[in-house]
Every structure is written in structure tokens, then in C-alpha cells.
Please model this.
Amino acid sequence: MSDDSGWLNSYINSLPERGWFQFLSKYVVVPFWVWREGRPKLPGGPRPSPQPSDNTQRMMNLLMPLKDTSPIGRAKAVMALAQNVDEIFAGLDNVGTVHSARFLLVEDYICMISVYDGDFSNYIRDFISTIGSVFDALMHEVEGGDKLYPSEENVEAFIDWVREHDLFQAPDYPFDLFGLQDEQAGRKPNDPPHDLQTLPRSLILQLHANRNISLGGGYRGYPGYSAAQIRRNLGVGW
Amino acid sequence: MENKHLVKDIVHALDIDGGSTERRPVHTVGVGATGFFKPSPMAQRFCVAEHFLPKAAKKGVRVDIRFSNGMGVVEEHDGWSDVRGMAVRFYLENGQSTDLVSMTLPVFFAPTPETFLDFALNARPKPCQRATPWQKIKSYLQLQLPLPDPYPGQTERPNEGAIAFASKHVWAQPAVIDASSIGAPVSYVRATYHAVHTFIVTGKDGQRRWVRFSWAPIAGVLNTDPKKPPEDRYLKKDLEKRLSHGRTERFSLMMQIGEAGDDFNDSTRQWPPHRTRVMMGTLTLNKVREDQQEYFEKLSFNPWHLTDGIDPSDDPVLRIRKDVYAFSSNRRQGTPCPFSGTKG
Model:
């Protein structure tokens, strides 16, 4: 709430909420800035880190675009998973680094949301070796999936594909967006420092490049502990 | 004292129009309450300080708590966006005590005393620069947010200077970003407070860990609606009301454990939120004392006032805060804190 300096000021303050100004922003202002200083797409998944708790309970938000988005195509994707429940549960048990995993059908995507420990590439390799058959069934229903079939013969391509479709995880602290964008553009982070007032523009342009993102790395109720440590301390083994 | 001139310069840099040398230079307006702290059953595993031991859990450790508005002015503007403070004194056995000084900002403005002085001088309140309609439209067209209009009656503010300074000094950016959007809590007990600096705690097994403390309100975090007119005086009344008729409010003391690779001596950066977090105990507030002047305005907290089992890190800002707080305490003739050898 500001002091009252007249109707013009009030009207200007309300511009971001007004339909005509939103239209102008969407179809003119944002495209102009995308043309002028668009940001490259930032890669998906958690960023590499040598620190222990950065390597436990990592989040994967894999969005796989459906080849056929009709109810029949969606049903095929559902069936690909439903017919392989035993494989999925046995695989997750044996991978041993997974805290939780689930599949969602959202709009035109089949999504795998999981929490795992350790390195991303090895996590995917484990998956291919334990439930590759499930992904093979699923890949037939997903855009760009045919060329990855069978996954066990296309391991590195499969890993790259998953990384490409894993959501970019926005930094936990807003200021860090500047540094990530600098690195992606091949510049030294924050050298020179960015004008703080350009942070909203940086965010908007990033959301143009990465339409879907994970808002930070997520909340953890018991951060820093691996699935193996939790199982051991709860006495439920393996 | 480490650097007498630097300490004095910092305090003077914080003195602003509307403040008073007879009051605190920042966090000038506040309200105190009493209560008790009970450690969690697992606290002593991580820290053997007296207030974390099991015997403290039986009857609780008596505490004094002072909540405050961050601004260094004697007028109350509770509803303005501002950092809030929460200083806690734990009264231990044998007349000993220890403090935990925290604020709603999770990071500090500068990594060293010298850079903080630089920041404080540049962020001194200046006459509010109201953006013209054209300037605001220009900001929108640049996909930027114009600075907010001043509050009714607000003639000076630190925003312009702090943002301009932070745009040239990366280390100031996290704190300035957070401070510029921090808002006003509906109650002092509906905000999270961070002790910001790293401390070293010694566990029951002798293991030393580098940690940071935060108070998490059990009532939950809630700010006022920024679109409504701000009230100048409501936080003290709110606390009195909440603690009347035997009612209480509580905070959980959370402790984040740092890892090799984290910067233990730079309080301008938060550690990632997924560091191991331990619930160390519960603080219960039960009364607002009537004599605020004697019990809280004269009381001198100090973030360096620690006890066996808790040591300071090598954070140079934590180190100089010891002397800055002592200097300020002497100047306003506060009840001496343990380091009050410094003449104000």
C-alpha cells in the first residue's frame, strides 16, 4: 500500500493486472526481449555437487510427451505401465537408491516423479538394467522414443534423452539464477555483477526457454539421509 | 577490541535521522517477553551446552526474548516492510547465561566488517525517489518492477541506495533481494528468524559440527496484506494479547548442519536447504513484562555471548558484532553485556 499520489499513479500501478497491458506484454514486450536477449534453455535435473547431502534425495521430474494425446493414446501409455507393475516394484527394490517414484499422466505428458540418491547418470543406468523393459514399452508411446528402443542398446542416448526431458530445477535462492544463466552462456558467473532490478526479466526470459520447471530442489523432511541409511536405521533392511 | 575505529564507524554509519543514541542504533523499537526453552531428546547428541541437556528438559530453561523492528528509528512503523529481530537470552545455572540473536533475514549484508561498513554507508536512508508514471511504464516495458511507492508519511528509505550498491557488489545481492521483499509479519510470533552466522557445536560424543540456527514459528509464517494500508502500532499489542490469560506461543529451534565444502565464515550466503536439519528444542513464550524499559530496552544481547558446547566460527562479521554490540550497549547505557569493556 503506497501513499496516495492521485488516480494516474494508481492506474499505472494497476497496469500489470489490466487485460490490455497483459496482452501487450504477452504479444509484444516479451517477444521483443526474447529476440533481444533471450536465454538459452537450462539443463534438467539436479546440478553436480561433491557434497554429501546434495547427493541424497535428489529430485527427478521427467516429462515425456505423448505421441498420441487422444484418450486411446493415453490409455496405451497407462497400459504400458499397468502391465509392468511387478517389474517396476522389483526394479525399484533392487536399485536400492530410490526413496519414492510415481508416474503421472498430466495433460499431454506421462511424467515420472522420483527421489533418488547418487549420480543422475548411474540412476538412469540402474533403471535401464532393472526396468528397461518398462521403459521400452513406454517409449513406443512417447515422442522421440522409438529411436531409443531397446534402451539397453542405447544407454547413453537414453540418458541424454532423460536429461533433456527432466525439468530444469530453478535455484533455491533467486539470486543464483544470474550465475546459472552466465554459465550456460559461457560467461564467468556474476562477473560483472548483474543489475538487481533485471532479475524479473531474467526469470521471465528463462521461463520462455524452460516452459516447465521445478521450483527449487524441493523440501525434505529428513534431509541429508540416503534411502539405505533410513532403511538400516528403521530396521527394514536390505 | 579488534578494531576500535571500525567498530565506532560501523555504529555511526547505522545512526540515522529519527534514531537516538540513547536507544539501539538498529532494531530500535521492540517488545520483550519471558518464557522457557526445553531441549528435544536428541539435542544433546549434537550439542552439550547446558540448555540442550536432558536436565534442562525437566523444568525448562528460563529465557527472555526481545522482538524488534529492524529500522533504527524510534517511531513505530510496524506495518512497513522491514527485517525483524528476535534475541533470546537463556538463563543457565550458577548465574550464567547465553544468547541467540536472530533476524527474519536468512543472510547478512556483507561478508566482512569493512564491506559491511561500505554497505551501511551506501544504504543509509535517503529521500524517497517516487517513480514517475513514465518511469514505471518504462520499467514494465523492460520487464522490471519499479520500486514501490513510499508508505504514507515515509520520506526516507534505504531501498534505492541498497539496490544500487548491491547491483555492483554480488555479495550484497542475496540479502538485498530478500530484504526488499520481506514485508511485515502479522505478529512477531508468525515469522521465521535466522541466527545467520555459523557456530560450532560439540556433541555428546565430542564431535564438533558447524551449524546454523533458525527459530520456526509453530503458529506458522504469515505476513500482512501489502495492498492494505500499513498500521503503525500493532505488534506489541498483538503479543500482549496472544500471551494474556495464561496463553502461550511457541517456536521450534532448528539446527542446520554444514558440510565440508560449505562456507562456514561467510554469512552472506545460505547453505542449500537440504542440509541435515535437527530439531533442537521448543521455546515457549508466556508473558509480556510490564516494565519493558528495565527488562528489555536496557538488556544487552550479544551474538558472541556463548556457553560451553557452542563456539563461534571464524566469521569476521560475527567477531566484530561482539564489539559493535558492546559499544552500542555502553553508548545507550544499557545493562552491560559480558563484553562491555568498550566505551561508547
User: Anything to note?
Assistant: The CA atoms of residues 77 and 272 of chain B lie 33 Å apart. The longest helix of chain B spans residues 316-331.
